[in-house]
Design a protein that fits this description.
rod-shaped; about 0% strand; Glypican_CS; Glypican; lipoprotein; mainly alpha
Length: about 375
C-alpha cells in the first residue's frame, strides 16, 4: 500500500512511515530555508537598528543645537519655545519611521506655534494678554501674512529632499524582512513533499540509510519545489538596486546630516526676518486680531532656566561617520545577496544533503 517508495525489492516501510517522512521533509525544508535566510535577515535587522540609532543620535544633536539657539539668542521666549522644538523633531523622527505625516505639515505646524512667541516676546515684548483666542488668532494669521518670509518654505524644501531618502530606506528595509519571512513559510505542495520523500527517505526503505541523493537529482527536485520562490529573483535584484540608489541619495547632495544641522540656521534667519518686518506685522495683526493689553518695559526673564549650549559636536561627528560606514557595509553586503533567490536550490543541495565525492548515490529509483 505504499504511495511514494514503491520498489520491486522487499521493503521495510509502511504507509504510516511514508506519512511521517512527509511531515519530516516539510519540517526540514522550513528549517533549511530559515537557516539560509538567517544571515540575510540578521544583517537587515542589524542595519535597521544601526540606522535608527544613528538617525536618533543626529536628531538629538540637531534638536539640542536648535534649543541652544533660543537659550543664547532669544532668551525671552526660550522656555515657551522648548515644546514646539521638541514636537518638530518628534514629527521628523516619526516621518523617517514611515508614519502618515509630511515634512511640510511638521515644519509649518512648528512655525504656527513659533509666531505667537516671536510676536509677543520679541516684536512686541510688552504684551501681557496672550489669551487662548489671541494666540490662536496669531497662529492663523501666520499662514496669511507669512512673517518668516521664504525661510519656512526653504526649510520644508531642504528637509523634504534629505528626509525622503531616509524614510524610503527605512520602509525598504522593513519590506525586505517581510519578503524573507514570507518565503520562509511558503507552503510545500503535495507533489513537492512526495518528491522530497522519494529523494531523501525512499532509500531507507531498502535499508540504504547512508546513501545520499545525486547532485543533479537533488537540484531538479529542489528547483521544482522552489519554483515560486525563485521567481522572486528579478524583483529581488531590482530591490537591491533600489537600496543602492537610496543609500547613495542619502549620502549625496541631499545629505541628511547637513539638512538636520541646518534647521537651527533656518529658524534663526526666519526669526530675524520677522523682527526686521516687525512694524508691518504689528499693523496687520492689530487689524486682524485687535490690540492686546500692554505692560511697560520688557517681561522679566528670571524664570528662564538656561539649557547648556549643545556641546555634542564629537557625538555628531561619530554619528555621521557611523551612518556613512553603516551605509557602505550594508550596501556591500546586500549586493552580494543579489542572487539570493536565484541560487536557493543550489544552496539547499550543498553540504551534507547530497553525495559529492563518491561515485555511489541515489537517483530516485536506485543506487547508481
Amino acid at each position: 500500500d505504499l504511495q511514494i517508495c514503491q520498489h520491486r525489492a522487499p521493503t521495510c516501510c509502511t504507509k504510516k512511515m511514508e506519512e511521517s517522512y512527509q511531515a519530516a521533509v516539510r519540517r526540514e525544508r522550513t528549517q533549511s530555508i530559515q537557516a539560509l535566510n538567517f544571515e540575510l535577515k540578521y544583517m537587515i535587522v542589524g542595519h535597521i537598528t544601526a540606522f535608527q540609532e544613528a538617525f536618533e543620535s543626529l536628531l538629538r544633536f540637531a534638536e539640542n543645537r536648535t534649543s541652544s539657539l533660543f537659550e543664547t539668542a532669544y532668551r525671552p521666549m526660550a522656555k515657551e519655545a522648548a515644546e514646539p522644538v521638541k514636537e518638530l523633531f518628534t514629527d521628523i523622527s516619526l516621518y523617517i519611521l514611515g508614519t502618515e505625516t509630511t515634512v511640510e505639515s511638521a515644519v509649518l505646524r512648528f512655525f504656527d506655534s513659533l509666531f505667537p512667541l516671536v510676536y509677543s516676546r520679541l516684536i512686541n515684548p510688552g504684551i501681557t494678554d496672550l489669551s487662548e483666542d489671541y494666540t490662536e488668532c496669531l497662529r492663523l494669521t501666520r499662514q496669511d501674512i507669512n512673517p518668516f518670509g521664504r525661510y519656512s518654505k526653504n526649510m520644508v524644501t531642504e528637509l523634504s529632499k534629505s528626509l525622503w531618502a531616509s524614510r524610503m530606506l527605512s520602509q525598504a528595509l522593513n519590506l525586505g524582512i517581510e519578503v524573507i519571512n514570507t518565503t520562509e513559510h511558503a507552503a510545500l505542495t503535495k507533489e513537492c513533499s512526495k518528491a522530497l520523500v522519494k529523494m531523501q527517505y525512499c532509500p531507507h526503505c531498502q535499508g540504504l540509510t547512508l546513501i545520499r541523493p545525486c547532485v543533479g537529482y537533488c537540484l531538479n527536485v529542489m528547483r521544482g519545489c522552489l519554483a515560486s520562490v525563485s521567481e522572486l529573483d528579478a524583483q529581488w535584484r531590482e530591490y537591491i538596486s533600489t537600496l543602492e540608489y537610496l543609500t547613495n541619495e542619502m549620502a549625496a547632495s541631499h545629505d541628511l546630516e547637513i539638512a538636520l544641522t541646518g534647521i537651527r540656521n533656518s529658524i534663526n534667519e526666519a526669526i530675524l526676518h520677522a523682527q526686521l518686518n516687525g512694524p508691518q506685522l504689528s499693523a496687520t495683526v492689530d487689524k486682524v486680531c485687535g490690540q492686546p493689553r500692554q505692560q511697560g518695559g520688557n517681561l522679566p526673564s528670571d524664570n528662564i532656566v538656561p539649557v547648556k549650549e549643545a556641546t555634542e559636536t564629537q557625538a555628531f561627528v561619530m554619528a555621521h561617520a557611523s551612518l556613512n560606514n553603516k551605509r557602505r557595509e550594508f550596501i556591500s553586503y546586500m549586493k552580494r545577496s543579489r542572487t539570493f533567490y536565484a541560487s536557493i536550490a543550489e544552496r539547499l543541495c550543498d553540504g551534507d544533503l547530497v553525495m559529492r565525492d563518491s561515485s555511489t548515490c541515489w537517483n530516485g529509483e536506485d543506487v547508481v
